[in-house]
């Protein structure tokens, strides 16, 4: 007998011949968040800053300039070619001179100082950005290897709760949920930001 | 119904880490002498407890989420076979390959074979309870394959040739000076001027591992959840080492206990709220990765999912005990447990320590191999209160104790003592005699508040793990008679 048949057989034996229908799952927890869009932006900002991410707000016309100045703050003086952007980020939102991710071997991305991407959705209550592997979010290695990550979030992409956030996502896409810079508390429980992922996270909120 | 009766095998002996070398009381006595360990543990558990309480307290519908989490798990177990078949179908449809392993030995063989097929002799690993349980690192090593742990705490444990002591913070028993010493001794090319500043230590680990991540061809991970209806796998983490492993290598092998499946995508909206708040006390952990099969041009192009039984179906056969399979490994129950806080994770002998370990390990191995664990609890109930999926650990403990007592052919000294006690207590004359005899204990105590631990057997079986108070000068009834003239 194959291990598969063996295990499935054991499960059937364990559960016995007459199985009652499992009780229905009651989803009477909060499915939506009724706070106003403005309030949600404030909550998102508060949560992200609590994780020690930097949040800057700007108008749609100021995105490229805001990203550029955020990069100067994070990296100091740098070459524009140290910055790589996800292919779906519109041209008028890219910092001058940035390189587009052209699908080179993933490990080559480690040579860049910073990445600029969009997001698929942002969840205010938990301060979470979700990237979905689309051209706008970029492939997973792009938001992982360079040490500084700048994410541009549109106000319309911000939802209140986790259930609302997951409902907007495609379960078949490669998803990365990001809540602050990478961190560890493994040494005497002291929080250290930035172990393997980007040590700096900047969120540009377009509202 | 028990697994033994139904002929369902438990986790085999001689492989993996579900059994300790010592019984709980013996192992605990060693760790109780380690003042450093107790201080670290006390600090760690108190800190995480406080953080958890704060972020759970701010969720108005926590009770509803917890009940939904419990109900989803119960419904999953009731149809476990169907959900696993659906999961296999979905993962396969998206370019993954599913393997089934009925125990640790089979799982290790499958993974070893898969790694060998890629032609590499080293792999990077994300912290995973399942791979520790089956002893995968040792099996790979025996096959000449080096398995590099990449979680900072696991790295500390691995480099120090130590074993983990906590599910969430496995190196909590080591302080910064000890970690610095381990890094200096074992990391090739480390800066000899390395200080014990946690930031500096973390950066040393980052530098040490980065090159490994970039050259790795095979990664091995566990999974926190697997969605049956979509084939989506989830790994929840903080440091980004998980993302490195799940993203950069060409081949990904995920090893998962069969109980980790959840039926629907929507179920994650419950667990992704319950887990981070209960575990690290954060509103959300820094990184959660979700993937279904293989995505062309993004991440590993070869994906294997290994589904492991290793005693889980035996647990499923016990209608009371099966609730232990609902565990989402948040470790909240460890952090509130007065026994764990003092004895530490190593005393439990298994990779699953604390209250959940006390109910899960003996069921996975069969009670005879972990007989002391169901007694490693004061039944205070704190674990049940914090459990995000409402596992009634105290009731399972009592259930397992009963099973253990039943399994014993001969009455032990404890059973004999209680039998004698019950006889004495049902007869007033015998009871008064017994009370007089207890007064003799005062001679042994020599004025100290407790009796010496070195009572002769069989009484020593009781006193070696308990402080027995010195009996009072007179009993309540004697005092009453003296003062009121009885
Ligand atoms: S038993 Fe409950 S509290 Fe303990 S680790 Fe599992 S899920 Fe968490």
Beta-strand percent range of chain A: 15-25%
Question: What's the assembly state of these chains?
Answer: heterodimer
CATH class of chain A: Alpha Beta
What is the CATH C level class of the domain at 59-310 in chain B, in words?
Alpha Beta
- Ions, cofactors and other bound molecules: iron/sulfur cluster
Strand order of the largest sheet of chain A: 1-12-7-4-2-3
Domain LUD (chain B): 87-308
GO molecular function (chain B): 4 iron, 4 sulfur cluster binding; metal ion binding
Protein name (chain B): L-lactate dehydrogenase complex protein LldF
InterPro entries (chain B): 4Fe4S_Fe-S-bd (IPR017896), 4Fe4S_Fe_S_CS (IPR017900), FTHF_cligase-like_sf (IPR024185), Helical_ferredxn (IPR009051), LUD_dom (IPR003741), LutB/LldF (IPR004452), LutB_C (IPR024569), NagB/RpiA_transferase-like (IPR037171)
Q: How would you sum up this structure in a few lines?
A:
Chain A is an alpha/beta fold. Chain A contains 4 helices and 12 strands.
């Amino acid at each position: 007998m194959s291990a598969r048949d063996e295990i499935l057989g054991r499960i059937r034996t364990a559960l016995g011949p007459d199985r009652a229908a499992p009780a229905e799952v009651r989803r009477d927890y909060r499915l939506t968040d009724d706070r106003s869009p403005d309030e949600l932006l404030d909550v998102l900002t508060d949560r992200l800053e609590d994780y020690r991410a930097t949040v800057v707000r700007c108008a749609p016309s100021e995105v490229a300039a805001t990203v550029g100045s955020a990069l100067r703050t994070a990296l100091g003086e740098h070459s524009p070619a140290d910055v790589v952007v996800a292919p779906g980020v519109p041209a008028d939102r890219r910092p001058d001179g940035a390189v587009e991710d052209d699908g080179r071997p993933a490990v080559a991305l480690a040579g860049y100082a910073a990445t600029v991407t969009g997001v698929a959705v942002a969840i205010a209550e938990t301060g979470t950005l979700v990237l979905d592997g689309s051209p706008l979010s970029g492939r997973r290695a792009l938001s992982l290897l360079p040490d500084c990550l700048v994410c541009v979030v549109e106000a319309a992409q911000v939802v209140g709760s986790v259930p609302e956030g997951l409902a907007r996502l495609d379960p078949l896409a490669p998803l990365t949920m990001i809540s602050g810079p990478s961190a560890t508390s493994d040494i005497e429980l002291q929080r250290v930001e930035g172990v393997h992922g980007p040590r700096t996270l900047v969120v540009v909120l377009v509202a | 119904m028990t697994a033994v009766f139904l002929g369902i095998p438990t986790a085999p002996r001689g492989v993996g880490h579900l059994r300790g070398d010592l019984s709980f009381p013996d192992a605990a006595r060693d760790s109780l002498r380690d003042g450093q360990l107790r201080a670290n543990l006390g600090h760690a558990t108190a800190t995480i407890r406080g953080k958890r309480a704060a972020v759970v307290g701010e969720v108005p519908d926590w009770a509803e989420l917890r009940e939904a989490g419990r109900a989803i798990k119960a419904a999953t177990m009731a149809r476990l076979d169907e959900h696993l078949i659906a999961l296999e179908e979905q993962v396969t449809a998206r370019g993954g390959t599913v393997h089934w392993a009925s125990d640790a030995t089979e799982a290790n063989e499958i993974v070893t074979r898969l790694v060998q097929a890629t032609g590499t002799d080293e792999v990077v690993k994300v912290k995973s309870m399942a791979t520790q349980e089956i002893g995968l690192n040792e099996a790979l090593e025996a096959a000449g394959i080096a398995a590099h742990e990449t979680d900072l705490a696991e790295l500390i444990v691995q480099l120090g040739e130590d074993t983990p002591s906590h599910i969430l913070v496995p190196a909590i028993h080591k302080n910064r000076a000890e970690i610095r010493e381990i890094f200096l001794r074992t990391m090739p090319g480390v800066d000899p001027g390395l200080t014990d500043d946690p930031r500096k230590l973390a950066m040393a680990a980052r530098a040490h591992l980065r090159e490994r991540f970039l050259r790795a061809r095979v990664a091995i991970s566990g999974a926190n959840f697997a969605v049956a209806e979509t084939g989506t796998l989830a790994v929840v983490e903080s440091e980004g080492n998980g993302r490195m492993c799940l993203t950069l290598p060409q081949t990904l092998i995920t090893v998962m206990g069969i109980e980790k499946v959840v039926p629907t995508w929507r179920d994650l909206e419950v667990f992704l709220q319950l887990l981070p708040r209960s575990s690290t006390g954060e509103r959300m952990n820094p990184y959660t990765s979700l993937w279904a099969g293989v995505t062309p041009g993004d991440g590993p192009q070869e994906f294997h999912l290994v589904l492991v039984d290793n005693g889980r179906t035996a647990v499923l056969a016990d209608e009371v005990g099966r609730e232990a399979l609902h565990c989402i490994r948040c470790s909240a129950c460890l952090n509130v447990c007065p026994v764990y806080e003092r004895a530490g994770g190593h005393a439990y002998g298994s990779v699953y320590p604390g209250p959940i370990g006390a109910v899960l390990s003996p069921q996975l191995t069969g009670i005879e191999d972990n007989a002391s664990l169901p007694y490693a609890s004061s039944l205070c109930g704190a674990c049940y209160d914090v459990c995000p999926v409402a596992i009634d650990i105290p009731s399972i403990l009592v259930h397992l104790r009963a099973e253990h007592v039943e399994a014993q052919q001969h009455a032990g000294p404890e059973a004999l003592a209680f039998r004698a006690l019950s006889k004495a207590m049902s007869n007033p004359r015998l009871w008064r005699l017994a009370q007089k005899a207890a007064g003799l204990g005062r001679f042994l105590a020599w004025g100290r508040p407790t009796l010496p631990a070195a009572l002769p057997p069989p009484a020593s079986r009781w006193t070696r793990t308990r402080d027995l108070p010195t009996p009072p000068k007179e009993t309540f009834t004697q005092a009453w008679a003296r003062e009121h003239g009885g």
